[in-house]
Amino acid sequence: MGYVDAHTHVWFKETLPEDFSNNNSGYDYNPPDIKEILREMDEVNLDYIVIIAYPSREIWRTKEDFPLRVIEYLKPYSERFSVIGGIEPNKLSLQEAKMWLERQYEAGVSGFKLHPVHSHVKPNAYREEEGELKQLEIFYQFAQDHELPVIIHTGTSVFLKARNKYADPIYLDDIAVDFPNLKIIMAHMGRPNYVSTAFQLVRIRKNIYGEISSIPPKRLLEYIPRLEEISYKTIYGSDYGGPGIKSISENLRNFLSLNISNKAKEEMASKNPKFIYKPLSDLF
């Protein structure tokens, strides 16, 4: 059985914007070497990893062309990587939103990400009572029509210019109701403030999946004591590239050492992510 790390920020120097070093994160990101990443993956039997290449003008200076550059760079290793794209719907015109979704889809993304806390937009801002942001409605509708998952960040962010008032996972409830065939991946399970809300949403909404990246594996059962109850629709990820995550290999080893059943570990770190995300080699 091979594993999947379904949430990483493995961003290579060759794919980043020229002004990335002058970003507004307050975090010193050091791009890894791809050979070292592949070696680590082989050490712990990772079949592939998912790279989140989302646009964030405020934090990282990345835009909607970012996933295209990542995909092009990874073509020689297409069976080992999956790439997630995305748009900042509140920073694009309707025409631009449609264009970038099409371009990313045609390039081979296996899903999209919305980062409300970094983009400063409520996940349900498409609704009339929330401002009726049509670009966001198009985003969800496109993903649903093309059977692509949408990852939505929940929980707080430590980066400069992050707006944590958008961190509450309860906003995803509207999306689950309005787009019933859309696979919604709730990144980080609302940690640390909203875990109970996140857990309940995974339980009651059939199209909301939990995702445990950035929660230290050794503390995972403190955050989610009833984790095994939702393991059938929960996804493992490390959030490597983010603060405090030492390596993709160490994070996976710590997860596999948890006192939970082997069935739950297999569901979260292999079966479920392989069901949700496809490697680039399956999409070209």
Protein described:
The longest helix has 15 residues, at 262-276. The chain has helices spanning 34-43, 66-74, 94-107, 116-119, 134-145, 172-178, 195-204, 220-223, 248-256, 262-276; strands spanning 3-8, 46-52, 81-84, 112-114, 150-153, 184-187, 208-211, 234-235. It is globular. The model has no long low-confidence stretch (mean pLDDT 97). It starts with a strand and ends in an 8-residue tail after the last helix. With 284 residues, the protein is of the alpha/beta class. The strands form two sheets. The chain has a five-stranded parallel beta sheet. The protein has a three-stranded parallel beta sheet with strand order 1-2-3, with helices on both faces. The chain has a single domain, classed as Alpha-Beta Barrel (TIM Barrel), CATH 3.20.20.140.
List the helices and strands and how they pair.
Layout: E1 3-8, H1 34-43, E2 46-52, H2 66-74, E3 81-84, H3 94-107, E4 112-114, H4 116-119, H5 134-145, E5 150-153, H6 172-178, E6 184-187, H7 195-204, E7 208-211, H8 220-223, E8 234-235, H9 248-256, H10 262-276
Parallel strand pairs: 1-2, 2-3, 4-5, 5-6, 6-7, 7-8
Helix pairs in contact: 3-5
